[in-house]
Design goal:
Elements (H helix, E strand, L loop, with lengths): L4 H5 L1 E3 L5 E3 L5 H17 L1 E7 L7 E7 L1 H7 L2 H10 L14
Helix pairs in contact: 2-3, 2-4
Length: 99
């Protein structure tokens, strides 16, 4: 299966800041990241925005993303597509226990 342009360019950043092209991640790392991203999406992803040039016009807002919005923001589909390309067993989306 050929790579899509997005998959070829996408770079995963590890916790310690190391950058790894998605196509060069180890199989176990890729599966673990898929699990981690879904867990984050289920727990909720908060987007924080703010701006302004002086204290008088400063603004701030928070938005809690839905599960699907969070998966999209976290590029979940690119990780899953790479795992599918490698024919890796992908954890079912329901692997995280509902709280």
């Amino acid at each position: 299966m050929a790579h899509t342009p997005d998959e070829k360019r996408f770079v995963h950043r590890t916790r310690d800041g190391q950058k790894i092209p998605l196509t060069e991640m180890s199989d176990s790392h890729l599966v673990n990241v898929i699990r981690c991203l879904e867990l984050k999406a289920r727990k909720g992803v908060v987007i924080r925005r703010g701006g302004g040039s002086t204290y008088e016009d400063f603004w701030y807002d928070e938005e809690l993303l839905s599960y699907e919005e969070a998966l999209e923001l976290l590029h979940f589909s690119l990780y899953v597509a790479e795992a599918e390309r490698r024919k890796l067993p992908i954890p079912p989306r329901s692997f995280v226990a509902q709280e």
